Automatic annotation (TrEMBL):
It comes from Vagococcus allomyrinae. The keyword Iron does not apply. InterPro entries: Acyl_CoA_acyltransferase (IPR016181), GNAT_dom (IPR000182), YpeA/RimI_acetyltransf (IPR050680). One of its GO terms (molecular function) is acyltransferase activity, transferring groups other than amino-acyl groups. Pfam families: Acetyltransf_1 (PF00583). PANTHER family: ACETYLTRANSFERASE. Residues 148-276 form the N-acetyltransferase domain. The keyword Acyltransferase applies. This is GNAT family N-acetyltransferase.
Length: 276
């Protein structure tokens, strides 16, 4: 029997099925998906909904819907087919309306021709693209002695975190108190100069929301932040470290490549305005 379940949290078995399906596409078709392990393993995140298409207890497709910033809903569809993409498409629109959001942003690997064609047929407008980069441990950056220190964020840092996000991305990301344990702040002489969000699971680490304040760029602070984090994590035995960077940000791409990251996939973003 075929059915689509909507969940606010996943159990271990469901997560295993999602990871296995993603690995299957990566291995057989070289198609990758924007799946943050930190989100998949969070059991109390009201900003996220999970949609699982099951048939006889087997996961056929999965859709992740999240809304962390602005007025948009981000959608990642894993395992879409000609027969079910339209179903997920309508579910995404309904989810946006339920949350009173007026824009849906659909994310897909540029190699996923079936999904890209479907988006275009539904008159979705292409918005931008980003590279998914993975670390080559053999090219890890050297830790350069500097005055940059890293510490975990706390509730008193929220205003400065918001300022950094707006400075770097032009928008503010919703932050729950529980999220602060995953955010590292960089300080120089006691002043916050940058931040980064760590999305860590048992076997991978995603680096998100990385920004150095405009007034402090060009001083090597960002490079030192990345070097410290990468070397600390590699020392624990973790080897799968990844991040995403917009194609229109060549300076950031250059920094990441100099720190040992290599291109794995290109994610395209298509947007749809939703009437409430």
């Amino acid at each position: 029997m075929r059915k689509i379940e909507k969940l606010t949290a996943l159990n271990d078995e469901q997560r295993k099925k999602i990871y296995a399906l993603a690995k299957q596409f990566a291995k057989k078709e070289h198609i990758y998906f924007k799946l943050d392990a930190n989100i998949l393993e969070d059991e109390q995140n009201k900003l996220v909904s999970h949609f699982l298409l099951m048939k006889n207890d087997r996961l056929q497709s999965y859709m992740l819907a999240s809304s962390y910033s602005g007025n948009e809903l981000e959608i990642t569809l894993l395992g879409g087919t000609e027969s079910n993409i339209s179903d997920f498409f309508q579910l995404a629109i309904s989810e946006a309306r339920e949350r009173s959001l007026n824009k849906v942003m659909f994310i897909t690997d540029s190699n996923d021709t079936l999904t890209v064609t479907n988006f275009k047929n539904n008159l979705l407008e292409y918005d931008f693209s980003e590279y998914r980069l993975v670390l080559n441990p053999e090219k890890k950056p050297s830790v350069i002695s500097s005055s940059v220190t890293l510490r975990q964020a706390n509730i008193t840092d929220e205003k400065q975190i918001n300022a950094l996000d707006f400075d770097g991305f032009g928008e503010v990301t919703q932050i729950r108190e529980i999220d602060l344990q995953n955010i590292l702040l960089a300080e120089v002489n006691g002043e916050i100069v940058g931040k980064i969000w760590l999305g860590e699971s048992a076997d991978s680490l995603g680096l998100f929301g990385f920004v150095v304040s405009a007034a402090e760029r060009g001083k090597g602070y960002g490079r030192n932040m990345l070097a410290q984090i990468i070397n600390d994590k590699l020392a624990t035995g973790l080897k799968n470290i990844y991040l995403e960077v917009a194609l229109i940000n060549p300076s950031a791409l250059k920094l990441y490549e100099e720190c040992g990251f290599e291109k794995e996939a290109t994610f395209d973003y298509y947007k749809l305005n939703v009437e409430q």
